[in-house]
Amino acid sequence: MGGGLAPGLGPLLQGLAPPRPGLAPGAANGSASARPRPGPAPRRAGGTGNGTGNGTGNGTGNGTGNGTGNGTGNGTGNGTGNGRTMGGWRDMSAEVLEDQYSPSRWSRRLDRDTIIDAHLEVTAAGTERARASTQTLLHVPYGSGDREKLDIYFPTNPSETFPVLVYIHGGYWQCLSKDDSGFAAPPLVAQGVAVVAVGYDIAPKGHMDAMVLQVRRSLVFLMEQYPRIRGIYLCGHSAGAHLAAMVLSTDWTEFQVVPDIKGSVAMPPEQGREKNWSPDLGQGCRAVETQLNENEAPSAVGATQAAAPPLPVPVPLGAVLVSGVYDLEPILHTYVNDALNMSWEEAQRNSPMRHVTPAVSAACEVLVAVAQHDSPEFRRQSQEYGQALRAAGWSVSLLDLAGVDHFDVIEKLSEDSYVLTQCRVLGLADPEPVREAWGAHLLLWDRMT
């Protein structure tokens, strides 16, 4: 895994840390002391209330007796007797809230004890395959920190200029790394798109303010170091979707550069090339690097250091956000914050929902994607953030993917037959043909303009 997991995070990811204080006591077995396990919904004796459907975010069901109700609507999900309607997270018990923010608890394909390990294995193995079949420039520093590095996967047959997909990994801001983030590269590089996996300091070493700044600085580095990039395409998953959303609210004048953020791209069939590229390989791959980089070798730049006068301000055109968290306040009351140690002020400062900026002319198009088997809270956050962007004038589409959970919704980006791989949905080119061809896979296609 290349050191992707911070020490001691295995138990945390399984949802075993003690509950945090400050919310109403849980009702599991009459005690609030037990940490909810990810996996099948626990039974709650004598509970009644409204269960929230995990189908489209609109379905609801009534919980009676044991407090578990079946969701209805365009999908099936489980509600909990102690829960409240979507949007009412402050009324949830500590146990229910932590269930909602434990993605492994909602998977239908693997049990709670294996889903995390399986995800780590899939992303690591996929990245190894990508490095073996793609020209790469690994561990490129964009700053002085240990994790302030980029992995670049170059197109198989690059043109004079080409677009770049910047992938920001998830892991609840406390696990995974760029070394697990190249799994989607082969199909993209075969289409002439470069892929850049961004590294950033994860908790407990990293804190939220620093992570957001690091991701922003990585884009500044790309724009300054590689001026021949033909637009940056953002893609983030889970915590990475949060960081990508924070990029959209950046005041780039502070950095003397504005990234040409275009959104995302289609993922064509894989055509790998059996050639590794690292800085040690020198002349054999220098020609490809030269097309990107007018300088001879990459060098790190700081947050406010500018190697040249400010670039012309381009119009940003989009981003893809997959199963993200856009309001950090609920996280303060869950086990996730044990490692992050966020204050209320820090959570407010770094919540994309609270920093939606008005869209500029011809604003970037944003795709907010969510999995059918994400929790109701994850689904609520995705829909509400999309609606907030729409209200500010952004062009937004919500893609609800059937039959996937929080983990394989992103793992499948490496599969030729996956809906996100086959269509140009990441660029939002023409959604209606995609809807017709993949209707069985899309629970909801909401063109919010």
UniProtKB/TrEMBL annotation:
Transmembrane segments: none annotated. InterPro entries: AB_hydrolase_fold (IPR029058), BD-FAE-like_dom (IPR049492), GDXG_lipolytic_enzyme (IPR050300), KFase_ver/fungi-typ (IPR027519). Its main location: cytoplasm. Residues 150-247 form the BD-FAE-like domain. GO terms for molecular function: arylformamidase activity. It is an enzyme of class 3 (hydrolase). Residues 8-36 have a biased composition (Low complexity). The active site is at S238 (nucleophile), D374, H406. GO terms for biological process: 'de novo' NAD+ biosynthetic process from L-tryptophan; L-tryptophan catabolic process to kynurenine. Catalyzes the hydrolysis of N-formyl-L-kynurenine to L-kynurenine, the second step in the kynurenine pathway of tryptophan degradation. Kynurenine may be further oxidized to nicotinic acid, NAD(H) and NADP(H). Required for elimination of toxic metabolites. Belongs to the kynurenine formamidase family. Homodimer. The main chain amide nitrogen atoms of the second glycine and its adjacent residue in the HGGXW motif define the oxyanion hole, and stabilize the oxyanion that forms during the nucleophilic attack by the catalytic serine during substrate cleavage. This is Kynurenine formamidase. It comes from Hirundo rustica rustica.
